[in-house]
Task: inverse folding
């Protein structure tokens, strides 16, 4: 059984210029101990969909879903109080900016021990021992001393480790990492990614990695979900995705990577991600797609079959060529 | 090959930090002895972690700050510690594009005003009609439409704003363009558009680029030469192919191996660096990389290595052997 199952999740924000749909019918399934990546550009709704799961969105947001189940709990129905018993214990999250997600007024130790105080019945000295153990687990040298440090006394890499320690405190079943290494240098990024994947493998924890870096995806995860403008456009195993992408957006995105370029001029995707006022009626990618025709502009596509990566496209690509055009004509 | 337009020799920029009560003042060696040349039509990429002195280098080359020591010759003219604040023509030769296109454009100026301002300040002899004509031409050159002239920055996406920033930098017809992480704030699908634009402009205007980036896949695509900085010091410099195929300095090799490659089938050996960049206020004795280096010898902790070699230079007592680098 899936650990997390979300069906047809939509998030709408009430803005002063009308409603804006940031997430548009997204499905997410995560099995126990699995490593899933959600990839997309800014505005693809990758962070918002996970924040909706955590219940961390502001009041202007309206969340609707056909199904939102975590480990047997229906997250749509439970009270805020019951949700708080799950969030921070079984589901935890780390964010992009370690510097701004730690509270500058409290020591690292206080902040780690706070989650232990809320979710466990360990006494004071047991909490201290557990905090030291966690700090050691994430590779922070001199843990006893660092527990007394304030966030500004730590570097970016160390703060992110402290965040991870905090997220691991209650042995979560699911860890959501929202761009955990974007603000860090490559040598530190390599350390943090290895730490996360080691923990995922050894602790049997499921990990959802939100990122925009295709290199990180290729090297760390098993299954990849590609999002565009609030929709899931493709879901595939990582090897297949890089070798034979089925959605034109995925294909174009991969082609635009400088390291995959075959000549000096890079292939580009014309135009920009649609905003609040220029959302196309049909396929959301159709204005930028090189294969788009009249049907794509008029009609919303439905996800293709599993062996076509659930591609949200009228003419899913196989080996870079669109299929099914003849039957439509 | 044409003559270099910029020659930097042993360029240094130090900052003094007040020590506070009973503490002596400390010196931060943000940039400590960089030598390189820039040639028209060529790109020198500068790579390194944060705190390695990349941005300080950009500030010194653009003459925002004067070097504390060393020699900087731009277009045959020498810039000393007194800086170049009086020499407008010289400063017009070097222009800069910043990382964040949201912060670097004035929100209260239209795109047209933004583009015309450099001419207004530096070329007062040019009339208003000519100014506008040149600004409109430049708009077309960077791939924006004529109607964008009257618009404000908030009406543009990140990629378009970066085009405006590039256009503004080119208004004074510079010879050198300093690009400080020009695409790292942009989405992948937009990044390639801006990179293509930069390559087109370089070809058309014979510009010399100083390209600062931490994204090695972009550097590999764009650069002709690569300079690797560590704690303000150049540890390796050479032609792109040499640096990427045969890195000799352990730090360069580690940096290359740490960069994720977008190919799930390629499994490579990763060199893990321990620890983080030390503070530039108290650099380690000897080679500044020695506490994190896996090829450290006794000599590394006492004697500072000099840059050696010709064309492809590296500062290391125990460089990675040539045959070992080929496998990476």
Result:
């Amino acid at each position: 059984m899936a650990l997390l199952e979300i069906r047809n999740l939509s998030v709408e924000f009430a803005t002063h210029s009308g409603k804006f749909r940031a997430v548009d019918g997204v499905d997410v399934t995560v099995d126990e101990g699995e490593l899933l990546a959600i990839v997309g550009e800014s505005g693809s709704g990758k962070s918002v969909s996970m924040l909706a799961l955590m219940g961390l969105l502001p009041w202007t947001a309206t969340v609707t879903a056909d199904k939102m189940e975590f480990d047997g709990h229906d997250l749509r129905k439970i009270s805020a109080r019951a949700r708080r018993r799950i969030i921070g214990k079984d589901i935890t999250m780390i964010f992009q900016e370690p510097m701004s997600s730690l509270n500058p007024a409290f020591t690292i130790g206080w902040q780690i021990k706070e989650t232990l105080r809320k979710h466990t019945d360990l006494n004071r000295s047991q909490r201290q021992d557990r905090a030291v153990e966690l700090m050691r687990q994430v590779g922070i040298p001199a843990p006893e001393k660092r527990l007394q440090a304030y966030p500004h006394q730590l570097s970016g890499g160390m703060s992110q480790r402290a965040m991870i320690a905090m997220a691991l405190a209650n042995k979560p079943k699911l860890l959501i990492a929202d761009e955990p290494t974007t603000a860090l240098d490559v040598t530190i990024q390599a350390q943090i990614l290895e730490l996360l994947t080691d923990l995922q493998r050894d602790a049997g924890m499921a990990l959802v990695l939100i990122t925009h870096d295709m290199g990180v995806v290729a090297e760390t995860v098993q299954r990849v979900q590609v999002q565009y403008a609030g929709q899931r456009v493709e879901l595939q195993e990582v090897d297949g995705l890089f070798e034979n992408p089925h959605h034109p957006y995925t294909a174009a995105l991969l082609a635009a990577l400088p390291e995959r370029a075959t000549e000096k001029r890079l292939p580009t995707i014309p135009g920009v991600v649609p905003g609040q006022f220029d959302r196309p009626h049909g396929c959301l990618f159709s204005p930028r797609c090189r294969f788009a025709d009249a049907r794509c502009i008029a009609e919303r596509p439905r996800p293709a079959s599993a062996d076509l990566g659930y591609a949200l496209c009228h003419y899913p690509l196989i080996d870079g060529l669109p299929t099914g055009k003849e039957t439509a004509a | 090959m044409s003559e270099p337009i910029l020659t930097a020799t042993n360029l240094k920029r130090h900052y003094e930090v007040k020590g506070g009560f009973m503490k002596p003042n400390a010196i931060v060696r943000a940039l400590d002895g960089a030598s390189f040349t820039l040639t028209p039509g060529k790109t020198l990429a500068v790579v390194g972690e944060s705190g390695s002195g990349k941005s300080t280098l950009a500030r010194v080359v653009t003459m925002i700050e004067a070097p504390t020591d060393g020699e900087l010759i731009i277009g045959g003219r020498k810039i000393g510690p007194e800086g170049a604040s009086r020499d407008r023509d010289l400063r017009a030769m070097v222009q800069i594009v910043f990382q964040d296109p949201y912060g670097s454009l004035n929100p209260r100026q239209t795109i047209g005003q933004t583009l015309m301002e450099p001419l207004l300040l530096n070329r007062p002899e040019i009339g208003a009609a000519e100014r506008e004509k040149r600004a409109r031409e430049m708009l077309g050159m960077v791939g924006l439409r004529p109607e964008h002239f009257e618009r404000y920055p908030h009406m543009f996406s990140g990629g378009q704003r970066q085009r405006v920033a590039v256009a503004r930098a080119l208004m004074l017809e510079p010879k050198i363009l300093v690009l400080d992480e020009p695409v790292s704030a942009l989405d992948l699908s937009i990044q390639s558009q801006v990179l293509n634009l930069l390559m087109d402009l370089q070809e058309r205007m014979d510009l010399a680029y100083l390209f600062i980036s931490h994204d090695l896949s972009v550097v590999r695509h764009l650069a002709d030469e690569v300079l690797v900085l560590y704690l303000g010091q150049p540890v390796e410099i050479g032609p792109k192919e040499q640096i990427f195929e045969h890195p000799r300095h352990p730090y360069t090799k580690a940096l290359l191996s740490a960069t994720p490659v977008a190919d799930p089938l390629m499994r490579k050996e990763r060199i893990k660096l321990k620890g983080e960049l030390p503070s530039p206020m108290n650099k380690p004795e000897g080679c500044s990389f020695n506490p994190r280096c896996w090829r450290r010898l006794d000599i590394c902790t006492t004697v500072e290595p000099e840059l050696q070699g010709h064309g492809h230079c590296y500062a290391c007592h125990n460089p990675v052997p040539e045959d070992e680098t080929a496998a990476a």
